[in-house]
What we know:
By secondary structure, the chain is of the alpha/beta class. It has eleven helices and ten strands.
Amino acid sequence: MQKFMxxxxxxxxxxxxxxxxxxKQPQSSLKPPLxxxxxxAAQTMKLPLSQAIGETFIIAYxxxxxxxxTALTESGFNCTVLRQExxxxxxxxxxxxxxxxxxxxxxxxxxxxxxPTLIVEADFVPVVNLGELPLPFNPEQLNVxxxxxxxxxxxxxSVTPEGYAEGFSTxxxxxxxxxxxxxxxxxxxxxVTEEQGTGYYNFDSDIDKYxxxxxxxxxxxxxxxxxxxxxxxxxxxRNGMSGIHRADTLAGELAxxxxxxxxxxxxxLQFAWARLNARIKGIxxxxxxxxxxxxxxxxxxxxxRLLKFAIGRQLFF
Length: 317
């Protein structure tokens, strides 16, 4: 298959961003954390998303994003929709590769910001009052790369005394990038293109490793800040993947009913059935040691903290 290589203009832009960050003095991109009242002691210093985020980008192709834009705007976010561009050069590229290029457009803009950037895909369904939920990482920490707000096949690595959880996820349904993390992540496109070509490849599974190798730490939320509302992806199915993934736990009520609830019959029943299956799968991953690895738990200096996080997130819907 013919490989598509980013043009010289794109490569130069990425190089300029990386050189700028290399010589920039480290500094926090946020104000000191606020102290919301009424939260558990371990979470009193966590900063609400609406105060932490600069820009918000919705990654889309031809999907209708009206409900998502409304929900995010009502939660205090300033949204911009980045629609995937059709170009003759992309004709032989897999849909997932073209999706990666669209995410890269958001990464470049996030790298130029002085605050973290929220990026969501068009089928993301946020919880109500998303902007009031806490930032899932310490805003004063200088080596944060990415923080997923929606997790797929997540794992937890460690938990700080303040309750921030370093971990892994795949899928880019909803996530936050720091400017430094975004600049580094722009280079992933070149790596994937050179090593995998422009065919089907789950590039999002490499993001945690890619950033960690460059000195970054990545974070997951206590519970998911929204749901993957889309139906099964046919390209995933053609390549041996299920094409279906849902949030195992949610941080609150969803802002609107996901598309997977269907258009006919009892939509609430179909939604409840999908959520029940997601909850069962999440509990199963916990019990079988896929969310919190047994070996990691044995070697941890703070196993009680890990267990409290892993079990606690599954106690409620």
